[in-house]
Amino acid sequence: xxxxxxxxxxxxxxxxxxxxxxxxxxxxxxxxxxxxxxxxxxxxxxxxxxxxxxxxxxxxxxxxxxxxxxxxxxxxxxxxxxxxxxxxxxxxxxxxxxxxxxxxxxxxxxxxxxxxxxxxxxxxxxxxxxxxxxxxxxxxxxxxxxxxxxxxxxxxxxxxxxxxxxxxxxxxxxxxxxxxxxxxxxxxxxxxxxxxxxxx
Length: 200
Known about the structure:
Layout: H1 13-25, H2 29-33, E1 40-41, E2 46-49, E3 52-55, E4 61-64, E5 73-76, H3 79-98, H4 123-132, H5 142-155, H6 160-167, H7 172-198
Antiparallel strand pairs: 1-2, 2-5, 3-4
């Protein structure tokens, strides 16, 4: 299943891979843009979250430690997300070689500008608007991918502890708030299903 029906992953591989990482890992925007290839373990199928890109003094983008102590975490990847990451890695090597960059260094950014530096923190939002404007696709923020990921985990039966660890929430209350939202929605759906079944 494609994230965006109107997007060809082969034509927009980097964008598709970035949004897939956001949707299927629940990482924060800054964590995603700080990722380097040595954070990816293709053998174990894991992604190490250990830093974040943020706005420093004077608007300069800088790398910092993750938002919370629990922010440092190892995330298991599904096979499709791993496939697209590996595919993008190969594509990046080819594209950036032509631009004069050697991207074989372990500390190479997974998502970089054509000057091989950090992308702007606004880039994912700009890409997202371009994809959804003028379409029937639901409007979602970049942070919305994280909330949707958590909701999907709860709907699939993940425990509060599992979701808290995967998202790197320091405070379990943050995770519980999402859980409450999801269960309230499910309760409403359950009532409607009951009404539909009994109201014949």
